[in-house]
């Protein structure tokens, strides 16, 4: 089974985000599983190279979540076109044909990711292949922010706000997948062999350590190898909308793709259904958990 590849025309860009309102305190979002490649992307590398950036099939792994009352937000556009898990200040100005008229990130730790070619707008694939053979205009980048970044972030914020208003607390799971082995230009740890799951809360700053510990413990009880805050701690979407002191908890959950798909062909394999059952089990636990009592 492969992802559907579509080209988003300008008219379709207004529908670049899919959101389903929920009734529970649980909010899930998938920012990187989009496979609708915008017509104005004009990339120069092979599509197969771009597709390695997708969190392939993550939206399928959690397609049961709305039925449990969880809010769901999903990006249709691909991560390589615009990465919603980056701040708009994480701009790689070397891509542009003119000076960027907005604020640019100065934090050296964040800039390290931009230098890898993984800023708000990607410059290179995970293997270091250049994506463009042209400079990008300031206008087209601004359009991507307006049509993709802003609607996505608004949908996530609205879902978390609504959950908090209904229940007095919210649990936000930022849903991702990762390769079995880190690519050469993907992270600060090239060649890293990944665990089955990585649970990230930016060192207990975006969710209580007790809640993150509960997630880790449950997954380990199911037989999985689970890492905590290494090598992924969580990025913009958990940072921006969390406030554990105010009972707004955000956890980034990375799933090793080897558990459910063939990374070379993008096809689901026999591990898909058991993994999905495990995720249903995890969400059932979270739906019964009030983090204020942990």
Descriptive report:
This protein has a seven-stranded mixed sheet, sandwiched between helices. The protein is globular, with a radius of gyration of 18 Å. The chain has a single domain (12-293), classed as 3-Layer(aba) Sandwich (Aminopeptidase). 28% of the residues lie in helices and 13% in strands. It has helices spanning 47-51, 58-61, 108-115, 138-167, 209-221, 236-241, 272-287, and strands spanning 17-20, 26-30, 71-75, 170-178, 197-200, 226-228, 248-256. The protein has 294 residues and is α/β, with parallel strands linked by helices.
Annotation keywords:
single chain; 294 residues; alpha/beta; Aminopeptidase; 7-stranded mixed sheet
Q: What is the domain total for the residues?
A: 1
Radius of gyration equals: 18 Å
Strand content: 5-15%
Please report the distance between the alpha carbons of the first and last residues. 41 Å
Q: How many helical stretches?
A: 7
What is the CATH homology-level superfamily?
Zn-dependent exopeptidases
Order of helices and strands: EEHHEHHEEHEHEH
**Regions with little confidence, pLDDT below 50 for 5+ residues:** 1-13
Structure summary, number of beta strands: 7
Largest sheet: 7 strands, mixed
């Amino acid at each position: 089974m492969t992802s559907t590849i579509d080209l988003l025309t300008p008219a379709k860009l207004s529908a670049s985000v899919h959101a389903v309102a929920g009734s529970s305190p649980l909010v899930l979002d998938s920012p990187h599983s989009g496979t609708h490649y915008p017509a104005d992307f004009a990339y120069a590398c092979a599509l197969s190279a771009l597709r390695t950036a997708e969190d392939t099939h993550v939206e399928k792994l959690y397609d049961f979540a709305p039925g449990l009352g969880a809010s769901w937000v999903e990006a249709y556009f691909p991560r390589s076109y615009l990465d919603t898990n980056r701040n708009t200040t994480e701009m790689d100005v070397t891509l542009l044909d003119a000076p960027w008229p907005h604020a640019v990130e100065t934090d050296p730790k964040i800039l390290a990711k931009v230098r890898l070619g993984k800023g708000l707008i990607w410059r290179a694939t995970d293997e270091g292949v250049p994506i463009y053979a042209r400079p990008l205009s300031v206008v087209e980048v601004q359009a991507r922010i307006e049509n993709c970044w802003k609607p996505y972030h608004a949908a996530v914020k609205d879902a978390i706000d609504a959950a908090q208003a209904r229940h007095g607390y919210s649990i936000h799971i930022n849903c991702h997948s990762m390769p079995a082995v880190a690519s050469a230009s993907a992270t600060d740890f090239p060649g890293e062999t990944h665990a089955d799951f990585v649970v990230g809360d930016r060192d207990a700053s975006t969710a209580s350590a007790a809640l993150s510990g509960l997630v880790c413990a449950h997954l380990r009880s199911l037989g999985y190898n689970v890492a905590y805050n290494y090598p992924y701690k969580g990025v913009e979407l958990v940072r921006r909308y969390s406030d554990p002191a105010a009972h707004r908890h955000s956890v980034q959950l990375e799933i090793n793709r080897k558990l459910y798909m063939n990374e070379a062909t993008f096809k689901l394999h026999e591990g898909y259904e058991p993994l999905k059952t495990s995720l249903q089990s995890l969400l059932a636990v979270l739906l019964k958990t009030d983090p204020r009592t942990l």
